[in-house]
Design brief:
The chain is mainly beta and 242 residues long. The protein has 2 helices and 17 strands. Helix content is 9%, strand content 39%. The longest helix is centred in the middle third of the chain and has 13 residues, at 148-160.
Length: 242
């Protein structure tokens, strides 16, 4: 698998078994006939909401900047406190909650657009989302022993691993002092049609273990349904301490 590292928001599918990673702002990329790729990279990034400023350091395995990774200091947390406020219901929509069964896991609240519904998994580990025009989504809260940068890179690799052709763009999305990223791209080359996706992930520490919160929205490529839904679902979400 060839990984192409870009610095731009627009993601372009590559022919063959490859994954394209995009970060920050646009710049030119050239690829040789042998399949090797070089990229000029910039690290300017759009402003995002959050209580702490973003830091930029090199990921040990890829050398890419850790967009959305912020300096955090663990501190005592009051139980059942919204460390990031619960979102308001959007026009015609609602707010969906995921309260994991694990006693030390945070509760998450996300905004849902009109015509979207949610269904919790029996074990409380996920919230399945269903929208119009073939769009779907899922919210998961998963314990992790990895730091933010490593957890985000692992998530990105897993997200594109099953697709012979894929792309991913990464933007910083820190939230209320928690490290976070937004990812957007496409998955193609399999038996089914190409899929467009939009994800938001956050590394949430608690008084016990840390958790990776992941919100996914995806659907058929080529329409506006995924982007429109993601504008709402991937907006700032609520985090409540266990």
């Amino acid at each position: 698998m060839v990984r192409v590292v870009l610095a731009g928001v627009a993601a372009i599918a590559l022919l063959g078994a490859c994954t394209q990673h995009t970060d920050g702002t646009a710049t030119d990329v050239t690829a040789s006939a042998t399949g090797t790729t070089s990229a000029a990279e910039t690290t300017s990034a759009p402003a995002t909401t959050g209580a702490a400023p973003a830091t930029s350091s090199a990921s040990p395995s890829s050398g890419m900047p850790d967009f959305g990774v912020v300096e955090t200091t663990r501190r005592p947390l009051e139980p059942a406190t919204w460390t990031c406020p619960e979102p308001a219901p959007p026009a015609g929509g609602s707010v969906a909650f995921l309260a994991p069964s694990a006693l030390d896991a945070p509760e998450i609240a996300i905004a849902l657009p009109a015509a979207w519904t949610s269904e919790p998994a029996p074990d409380g580990s996920a919230l399945t989302l269903t929208g119009p025009d073939g769009t779907t989504g899922v919210l998961t809260v998963t314990p992790t022993d990895l730091g933010p940068a490593e957890a985000f890179e692992t998530y990105s690799d897993d997200r594109t691993a099953g697709a012979p052709i894929s792309s991913v763009s990464v933007l910083p999305a820190e939230l209320c002092g928690y490290s976070g990223q937004k990812m957007l791209g496409m998955l193609s080359g399999g038996a089914g049609p190409a899929v467009e996706y939009r994800d938001r992930i956050a590394h949430v520490w608690t008084g016990g273990p840390s958790y990776l919160v992941a919100i996914r929205v995806e659907g058929p490529q080529g329409g506006e349904a995924v982007s429109a839904a993601a504008d709402v679902i991937l907006s700032d979400f609520g985090i409540r301490t266990p």
